[in-house]
Amino acid sequence: LSGGQRQRVAIGRALVRDVDVFLFDEPLSNLDAKLRSELRVEIKRLHQNLKNTMIYVTHDQIEALTLADRIAIMKSGEIQQLADPNTIYNQPRNLFVAGFIGSPSMNFLHGDLVNEGGEIFFRTHDVLFSLKGYRSQETLTGGRKVVLGVRPEHIKVDEEAGIGELHEAIVDIEEPMGADNLLWLKHAGHTMSVRIGGTRRYAPGAKVRLGFDMEVASLFDAQTEERI
Q1: Which fold has domain 3-100?
Q2: How are beta strands 180-187 and 145-150 bridged, if at all?
Q3: Strand, helix or coil at 65?
Q4: Sign of CA pseudo-dihedral 219, 224, 226, 228
Q5: Range(s) for CATH 2.40.50.140 in the chain?
Q6: pLDDT of residue 11
Q7: Where is the MalK-like OB fold domain (predicted)?
Q8: Would you state the CATH architecture of domain 107-221?
């Protein structure tokens, strides 16, 4: 039997038992990418049909996000966040969770909050970012050291950036990935990853305009690393 067939047999032997809880300990870790994808779908289908509780241990974030109803992110034996996949991805509780989930990981910009004309801005390397639209904007106060987190797909480039606040950046590296491309940009002393459509191409050194979607951005306290 092939590795995939042996794994199917092992999973089948476990599932025929009449138990309340199934424990999977990285069942797909030794399989190639194609087999992992196929078995992931099979496990998802079995869970929907059997409706048993399944505890699934994995280091693969794709498996966690696609299979789980709830995810527990652990660090040094302690649960950092327990929530549904959408909350884990879009509202991470702290910097560790934000950086752990997502590929490429969330972009982090270190700076502080400043009050300019009665409005709170994020400042990094003397560049100001408006925080209009941020979920907890009314709770923000100036003078606080923070980390701004933005996922690659939440940074818009050029014509997608809209007509709001725009910032200029320089293309460092482009990574074509088929359905989409990854751009690595230099802006305000930071290197950031941006996910764009696969038909759009940029040469290294090209200048682009950026727009941040603050409605889905994250702010973390620089000292406690907890979400604000």
Answers
A1: Rossmann fold (3.40.50)
A2: unpaired
A3: helix
A4: negative
A5: 107-221
A6: 80
A7: 102-155
A8: Beta Barrel (2.40)
pLDDT reported for residue 160: 64
Separation in Å, CA 49 to CA 15, 44, 45: 12, 9, 6
What Rg do the C-alpha atoms of the chain give, in angstroms? Answer: 21
DSSP code of 163?
Answer: S
Beta carbons of 98 and 106 less than 8 angstroms apart:
yes
Are 194 and 187 in contact by the 8 Å Cβ rule? The answer is no
Within the chain, all domains assigned CATH 3.40.50.300 are found at 3-100
* pLDDT interval class at 164 (50, 70, 90): low
Tokens describing residue 115? 């009050």
Exposure string over 10-40, b if 16+ CB within 10 A, otherwise e = ebeeebeeeeeebebeebbeebeeebbeebb
Whole-angstrom CA distances from 120 to 102, 132, 189 are 28, 9, 21
pLDDT for residue 85 is more than 80? yes
The predicted model scores a pTM of 0.86
CA pair distance 86, 123, nearest whole angstrom: 28
pLDDT digits (tens, 9 = 90+) for 11-40: 888 878 878 899 999 988 878 888 888 889
Q: What's the CA gap between 166 and 25, in Å, rounded?
A: 46
Query: Using alpha carbons only, what angle is made at residue 206 by residues 203 and 207, rounded to the nearest 5 degrees?
Result: 150
Q: Name the β-bridge partners of 195.
A: 182
Smallest Cα–Cα separation from 202: which of 163, 175, 166? 175
